[in-house]
């Protein structure tokens, strides 16, 4: 694989931007927008042909999508407790919608996308404690919606209605290390998509060079409801805890944003 300078890579991206509509190289593949760009660049998946490639990531997104982008997976501390399966699922879980159908009748679920701005209808919220340098999950039974009253009674019977004790958390340093190694610098490419005669086409329209991931901007985005914490566990499997980002908000996490 030929190694390009960063400037040469930028030049290649500009050429692709000027090509107009390009057929999806991986028809039917949700990740086709990224795969097609990698094919055009002649690179293997997320293996940028530039010096210090480990410090850069190539991220692509369809302009019209409203779906959340997963930034990274990271389970909360205290890790030894295995908090999601042993506390959230056992003490705050509810019957899985497919319990007794696809899964055993006893299958429980804990699926919550939690914001730092408003509490969920089950009373959960992301809280930033800058003094202790922690991102915590908080529970307040007073914020639970009426439709979950039966579940709230179950929680009361299992563990009581107080704050989570201990509260699951992520330390600022751990978050910065995790996000910083994965997102330190980024080429962020957005594409339009269309379908013609049953085939999908992409038009790579906007290319941003994002530099220096900022933990403070990340925390602000958590508070602003632009970054969310996503739990997705059931009795038989914990799908992992994800930090997820709203559409078009990736540039807000960096100190330097350059359109190319």
Set out the fold topology.
Elements: H1 6-17, E1 22-23, H2 32-41, E2 56-62, E3 69-73, H3 83-92, E4 94-95, E5 108-114, E6 122-129, E7 134-144, H4 149-159, E8 169-171, H5 172-183, E9 185-196, E10 199-213, H6 215-223, E11 227-234, E12 237-238, E13 242-245, E14 254-259
Parallel strand pairs: 2-9
Antiparallel strand pairs: 1-10, 3-13, 4-5, 5-11, 6-7, 7-8, 9-10, 10-14, 11-12, 11-13
What does this structure look like?
Strands 3, 4, 5, 11, 12 and 13 form a six-stranded antiparallel sheet that branches. This protein has helices at residues 6-17, 32-41, 83-92, 149-159, 172-183, 215-223; strands at residues 22-23, 56-62, 69-73, 94-95, 108-114, 122-129, 134-144, 169-171, 185-196, 199-213, 227-234, 237-238, 242-245, 254-259. The longest helix is centred in the N-terminal third of the chain and has 12 residues, at 6-17. It has six helices and 14 strands. The protein is α+β, with helices and mostly antiparallel strands and 260 residues long. Helices cover 25% and strands 35% of the residues. The chain is globular and about 65 Å long.
- CA gyration radius, whole angstroms: 21 Å
Give the number of DSSP strands.
14
Characterize the biggest β-sheet. 6 strands, antiparallel
Please give the count of helices: 6
Secondary structural class: alpha+beta
Q: Helix and strand succession?
A: HEHEEHEEEEHEHEEHEEEE
Gross morphology is globular
Low-pLDDT runs of 5+ residues are none
């Amino acid at each position: 694989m030929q190694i390009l300078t960063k400037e040469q890579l930028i030049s290649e991206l500009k050429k692709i931007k000027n090509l107009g509509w390009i057929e999806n190289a991986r028809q039917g593949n949700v990740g086709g927008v990224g795969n097609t760009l990698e094919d055009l660049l002649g690179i293997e998946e997320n293996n940028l042909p530039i010096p210090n490639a480990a410090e850069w990531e190539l991220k692509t997104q369809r302009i019209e999508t409203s779906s959340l982008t997963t930034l990274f997976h990271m389970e909360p501390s205290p890790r030894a407790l295995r908090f999601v399966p042993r506390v959230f699922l056992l003490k705050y879980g509810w019957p899985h919608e497919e319990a007794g159908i696809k899964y055993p009748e006893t299958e429980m679920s804990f699926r919550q996308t939690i914001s730092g701005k408003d509490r969920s209808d089950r009373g959960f919220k992301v809280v930033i404690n800058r003094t202790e340098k922690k991102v915590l999950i908080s529970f307040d039974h007073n914020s639970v919606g009426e439709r979950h009253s039966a579940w709230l009674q179950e929680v009361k019977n299992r563990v009581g209605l107080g704050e989570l004790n201990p509260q699951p958390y992520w330390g600022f340093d751990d978050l910065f290390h995790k996000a910083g190694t994965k997102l330190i610098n980024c080429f962020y490419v957005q594409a339009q998509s269309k379908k013609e005669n049953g085939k999908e086409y992409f038009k790579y329209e906007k290319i941003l060079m994002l530099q220096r991931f900022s933990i403070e901007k990340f925390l602000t985005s958590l508070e602003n409801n632009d970054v969310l914490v996503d739990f997705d566990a059931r009795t038989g499997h914990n799908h992992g805890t994800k930090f997820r980002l709203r559409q078009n908000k990736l540039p807000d996490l960096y100190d330097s944003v350059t359109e190319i």
